[in-house]
Write a structure and sequence with these properties.
Blueprint: H1 2-5, E1 11-14, H2 27-34, E2 39-42, H3 45-57
Parallel strand pairs: 1-2
Length: about 70
């Protein structure tokens, strides 16, 4: 969040940060998203694990039925 607020983050990839319960992300991430200076991507836990598995196996992606 500190780096995002300083403008040092271009892509924010997260897996259910938890701030969604309150209807917002942190101030730095929200500002970057509104100003379109940051790409914000949110994944499910299953999708995040599939991405890590693909990297561990040296694959470009890991097929899954989760979405």
């Amino acid at each position: 969040e500190v780096l995002a607020g300083a403008g040092a983050v271009k892509i924010w990839e997260s897996c259910w940060v938890g701030h969604e319960l309150y209807g917002k992300l942190g101030e730095g991430v929200a500002r970057g998203q509104c100003e379109k200076s940051m790409i914000v991507e949110d994944y499910s836990h299953g999708q995040a694990v599939a991405r890590l598995l693909a990297g561990a196996y040296g694959l470009p992606f890991f097929p899954t039925a989760l979405s």
